[in-house]
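User: Predict the structure for this protein chain, please.
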Amino acid sequence: FPVIADEYTITVGAGGAGVTLGVGGSGENSVFSTITSAGGGGGGYYNGYNGVAGGSGGGGGGHTGTGGAGDTPSTDPSQGNNGGNAISSKGAGGGGAGEAGHAPISSGNKGGNGGNGVANTITGSPVTYAAGGGGGGTTGGTGGSSSIGGDGGSGDAVDAGDGDANTGSGGGSVNESTFTSGN
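Assistant: Here is the predicted structure, written as structure tokens:
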């Protein structure tokens, strides 16, 4: 995108808010001049709620939740990847800029890992941005991990972690109604 000495309208979209009962909040769009980057989709919720579509899609909620579509609306180059699909009662990871969110492995009680972000040198040194948040684990397990997004919570009174500030990364999800998903 060619930039000249001029004024450009820049909007930094707010991140999605964590919730206690329901599908996680989606991020808002960010805009630089004529380029719009879609906010990430919120993560699904326990009992089969699906992840939401977005720049990268949210992971599916425990039981039968499917991951939200990434690159929505579609752009060239692609904005991001799909969220993972849940398995059994464990939630899946959200999509990242570098790869799709991961489904949980079939054995154990751990949620799926979030998709990796992508490194960029806009600050002068490599910094990784836009990783997906981890999926919620069940009682006796752990949440899925994320490289710079929030780790998922678990059924053992563990809230999910927030995505790292100013990285565009997703917060983790939870699989129990009394705990809170990440911002």
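Residues 44 and 51 are 4 Å apart (CA to CA).
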